[in-house]
Write a structure and sequence with these properties.
alpha/beta; Helix Hairpins; 2 domains; 6-stranded parallel beta sheet; 12 helices; rod-shaped
Amino acid sequence: MNGTDIPVLHALASRPVLRRLLRPVAAFLTVVGLGAGGFSALGDVGLVDATFWLLDPTSIELHFQTHDGPAQAVKAFAIVVLSGQIVAGLWIGETFLSAAFGGQIQDELQHMRIEQTIAGLEQHVVVCGYGTFGRTIASSLQDADRDVVVIENQDAQFQHALDDELPVVQGDARRAETLLEAGVDRAGTVVGAIDDSMVNVQIAITASQLAPTVRLVVRAGGQMDEALARRAGADEVVVPEIVSGQQVSVNL
């Protein structure tokens, strides 16, 4: 196993569905380990023969036809081990089928694809919020062939971003782990596009702490909010009502 395999294995193990599968798989392996050890101790055989007994219990009968030992105890133990294997195997199957028919596996694969896409981006734009304002910005950036990553906490808007084929992270953009998942440490710009000035200011503060050189664009609700955003470190503050009013006046 080379060094590049470790992050991949870590990413796989961090997925919820695979974490659920780890429990029944671990139970199955535990039964196998205890079974092999028990057979070895009871039957006074090597681990190779003991493991073979797990695969083919009929070989136990053949063994005691030519060897002395506690045949009945070993056979009783074999029944217990076989029952444990069956239960653990059914647990694995039930967990897998539940995830498959519940759409969880597809969701996890999609999430992994998004993570891989984000991991390959640099100098991209992180758009926090996929309402009308954020969606308009993301669409314009897409048209300009700019790399965009969206952060959205609400299920409906999150799904809209997926439908628009954008790499999207679901979570609170004020949280460091969410911004890092969106690759803020490699981003060129972070846009606080949520319809709440205070939230956008908090996003700007967290983003500047994680990536001091990132450009911060903050949506504000008015001049008072604009001043607060500037003090928080915003490089550019956008007040949609003022911008739209200026655009209308130009066309009059």
